[in-house]
Amino acid sequence: MCYAVNEAFIQLHRKGKIYRKESLVNWSCQLRSAISDIEVDHQLVDGPKGILVPGYDKPVTFGYIYQFEYKLWDSNERIVVSTTRPETIMGDMAIAVHPEDMRYKKYIGKSVIHPVFHTKLPIIADSEVDQQFGTGALKVTPAHDPKDYEMAKRHGLEMFSIFDDRGISNKNCNQFHGLPRFELREKIVDFLRDNNLLQGILPHQMSVPVCSRSGDIIEPLLRPQWFVDTQEMAQKAMEAVQSGKLKIYPPQFERVWFEWLGNIKDWCISRQLWWGHRVPAYNLAGAKETAIWIAAHNSEKAVEHAKNHGLDYTSVNQDEDVLDTWFSSSLFPFSVCGWPEHTMDLRNLFPLDLMETGHDILFFWVARMVMMSLELTGELPFKEILLHGIICDSQGRKMSKSLGNVIDPLDIVYGASLKCMEDKLESSFQKGHLSSKEFEKAIAEKRTAFPSGIPQTGADALRFTLCSYNVKSHFINLDMAILKRNRLFCNKIWQATRFLFLLLDEISPKTGSDYFSWLNEPNNSSVVNQWIMNGLAKMVNQIDGAMTRYDFHHATDALYNFLYGNLCDVYLEAIKPLTGVDKQQSALVLVVCLETALRCLVPFMPFLSEELYQRLHTKLADLGIPSSQSVSILVAEYPSKDEFALWRNEELEKTVDSVLRAVTELRNMKLEYGLAKSKPDAVFVCPSERVLSQTDHYSKLMSTIAGLKSVTIYGDMCLTNSSEKACWVSRTVENCSVHLNLAGMVDRKMELKKNQEKLKKLVENLARLEANMGTASYRSSAPSHVQETHRLKVASLQTEIRQLKEYAKELAKIIIGQHIIHTSGHLPKKMN
């Protein structure tokens, strides 16, 4: 990698794409290094606000504009100038006004007296001056302001710095030498006030440049640095997207891509740090005043180059700066394949198909990879870019040290007690990674969010959860409840596989090897087998489409719905009572469903799917059942679209789904009346010919899954009086209805009494909670997340109270002494 980085620098330097010059750079006094434009965060300040700056004991106030006077050189007149940075007054080289500003037109070409040095400064006219900013007259400090720097170049003004690398005023400041820059600000303001030059200090909206790495306030400084000329490279990168050769998902980021690359500045790649790839450039010092820089892999190569070109020198010294880490990172797609050598990996693996990364580093990394690859290899580094959102906490807040809501992924994978998390925070605080304020905030946040710690979830459940969100969303709110649900989902898959192994042990081996001939004969299978295989075919097709579109959340939904909803909740329950041939075929159907689902699952749960895949194929081999096993599920063939197209049966799917909705309603009715462990009789009234033609199949399916004694299916029905006691409750399900016989199972009076007691308790709890939330002290002092929790609790109580009231009404409607008989009449709208 080091060789590739050096080679890239050398090639670009020889092409004239890398050059060295003294220029105004973004300087972090805390890091004592230059940083690039996109490493600067611009914090908007609406008015006076204190900001903690590294190296200062108290917050530094920003959000003021200072107005003070400059005396004219040849008269008693004065010009009032405006600035947000009075501390840079010693670096002033001119006063600038707009050429069309009638207030100052008469002063253009004249001079003013510098208030500290008493030297002459010109009054210049420049169309870039904003007449609406302050008084419309601005001080020009070329060595400490980007706009002033450009203005000074246009007007040929002198430039010199007044701060050193640490942000301390240097000898150019005379009596103000040796002061930190923001302490200097206070001294200068006092000086101006004492000399009757200060006209006013007013609140002002401003943008404060902050170093994203250190939190320091950026100080523009003149420094010799290495730059990459990115103009032509950026144009090529834009053309790649415009032509469709490079695609960006989601597509709205194309606009951002063009906006940034269309306004790109040359890239400052040198850093003044102790770590990193050292700049492979050597200074040849000699008789000439101008130093010569040669890019080479080592000093010997630099000397050889100098001799070959007849260059005189007395010494050779390598630049002490290091390269921006994004410079080496931008070479990643091809350098890892062996570039600059023409390796087999470079021929076979480069360029890549897809680059997946966060949208927040689209320009830090992705754009630069594209530019560098096109420049150094002539090819795009990848064909598509997929940008995922930023992971936030469950409240939608970005994870940051200042909020104290950062979650260590390993704590989710392995679990962590509250004490363990507090100990880690204490360690970070002791090492200086957290300030005392950040430490206290993080401790409080952990105690509020995780009073019992974080339960172990596992890597697979975490991975599946992250993919279950729409990764193309701008922000992703990580919900611990969804993590828990997916951990239970992992356990569900494991238990389903164990059930399959038990089932396989019970079936009799076939004499031949034709275990899976039924795959080509869907019509010879039972209804429930046809239905689950149809679900498998549908899931595979859904995943194929979702993966093609990079809609991973649709793929995880398809997997969850099939494995949890269809396979475990329905199919496994339906086949448990089977015997003989039916049981054997169902076991083989389950083999196909689970094996295929595991191969679909591997991108989202690699560890679980690998373990179960190996165990499943080992089990099949032990039983003499043929299977197509790969050495690892990671290299096994991924299920393809229409692989099970023969089993697609939308009519059957609609029929069984309507039956399952009826089962869900029957289950809910059992829960409502406290019959979860009882097995009452039921009636299912459905006019569907597909259901009526196979009543035995659907009756067994419904009674098994819903836990009922029996289910009788009719095409229509009505009520009639009878001496036989019955107690029916009914529900409508689309164009069908379900009816549950509660005779001998529900004591109406006892149920009503229990209902009223529970209802009374819930109403009292709701009243107490609402009374507490209604107080002024609660609204003003209770934390926002506590108030949100209480609001959700109120909504939950209100829902539960409403459900209990509806249950009481249902109990009151129960009529004793009627039962259902089948007739040729019509289906009544309601049972009475």
Structure description:
The structure is a single chain. This protein is an alpha+beta fold. It is built from 25 helices and 31 strands. The strands form ten sheets. Strands 6, 7, 8, 9, 10, 11 and 12 form a seven-stranded mixed sheet that branches. Strands 2-1-14-16 form a four-stranded antiparallel sheet. A hairpin with a 5-residue loop joins strand 6 and strand 7 (78-83).
Please describe the structure with a list of short key phrases separated by commas or semicolons.
832 residues; alpha+beta; seven-stranded mixed β-sheet; four-stranded antiparallel β-sheet; 25 helices; disordered C terminus
SSE diagram, text form:
Blueprint: H1 2-14, E1 18-28, E2 33-35, E3 40-45, E4 49-51, E5 60-62, E6 64-72, E7 78-83, E8 94-97, E9 111-113, E10 120-125, E11 138-140, H2 146-155, H3 181-194, E12 198-203, E13 206-211, E14 219-228, H4 231-242, E15 247-249, H5 253-262, E16 267-268, E17 270-271, E18 281-285, E19 292-295, H6 299-308, E20 315-318, E21 322-323, H7 325-329, H8 332-335, H9 344-349, E22 352-358, H10 362-376, E23 382-388, E24 390-392, H11 409-414, H12 418-430, H13 436-449, H14 459-468, E25 475-477, H15 480-506, H16 527-549, H17 552-575, H18 580-601, H19 606-622, H20 650-672, E26 681-685, H21 689-692, H22 695-706, E27 710-714, E28 718-721, E29 728-733, E30 736-741, H23 748-773, H24 776-781, H25 784-813, E31 818-821
Parallel strand pairs: 8-10, 15-23, 22-23, 24-25, 26-27
Antiparallel strand pairs: 1-2, 1-14, 3-13, 4-5, 6-7, 6-9, 6-12, 8-11, 9-10, 14-16, 17-21, 18-19, 18-20, 26-30, 28-31, 29-30
